[in-house]
Write a structure and sequence with these properties.
Layout (H helix, E strand, L loop, with lengths): L1 H12 L9 H10 L5 E15 L11 E16 L2 E16 L6 E16 L4 E11 L4 E4 L4 E5 L5 E11 L5 E14 L3 H5 L11 E15 L10 E12 L8 E11 L4 E11 L22 E13 L1
Antiparallel strand pairs: 1-2, 1-14, 2-3, 3-4, 4-5, 5-8, 6-7, 8-9, 9-10, 10-11, 11-12, 12-13, 13-14
Amino acid sequence: MKRFFVTIVVTSLFLGAIGQVTEGETTLRKQSSTTDDGWKKGAVLGVNMSQSSLTNWAAGGLNSFGVNGLASVFANYKHEKITWDNSLDMGYGILRQGANTDFIKTDDKFDFASKFGLQATKSLYYAALLNFKTQMTEGKNYGATDTVKISNLLAPAYLLTAIGLDYKPNNYFTAFFAPVTGKMTIVNDTELSNKGAFGVTPGETLKSEFGGYLRAAFTKNDFTSEWLKNVSLATKLDLFSNYLDRPQNVDVSWETMIVFKLNKYISVNLNTHLIYDADILFDTTGDGVIGVGDKSLVQFKEILGVGFLYKF
């Protein structure tokens, strides 16, 4: 509980953070719906900095400096009835408060997805999906007196493979349903695996699950209303149920990004990310150890910021 709310507070303070449902993913979905054959490639790069300096400031406060960046690339292929969509989203952010403190992490993401489809009808595709997610550096719980490692590179990492049907009725909505899905959780860190972090058996590095998966995505950046002509909306919902163990405990990941474009490069954005995973436990008993009596909780992140984006 403590590390969750500390992370939320720190992240919200850093207004320069750029949302995880990136414009690159928006472009990917828009491009993949076109009828033109061949490869379509592109990228979105973003960077933002925030800084405050106080000298003899009677109201009090701390100097601070933060920087956040993202890179989102896509490469999509279409030929007759075949489609192949690939995307890679990366983000990283750091923040420093006060002159004698270290930088702390505010963002860390590596997300690769590849989806192959074969058209069955006008709006329906037979499809297979591969998705790999992890982070790039060590993550810590920044407490009042100490810091505790709670994650690391490949700890966790999630590898998901799915076979199912992809429904694309138009250029702004898709729904991929896979009744045959394998999900693997990797905790490649001895300290964390010994604690049984992220649902693995203590001392093990892998946890395998088999179940059903649903990914629904809605993207709209061409609203006809005069009030919404500079607004873009992208939202993505992922649901996974493990057939073999407590199938009623559905893993949820719901990301939403609302962007208001001030001009070609500058935009104001609001990003939210809700996560629920029954296998991720929080120290609700307050004994400093994740174990019996601790509970899974709804995780929620909200970021409001002004960002610089360049698309090519």
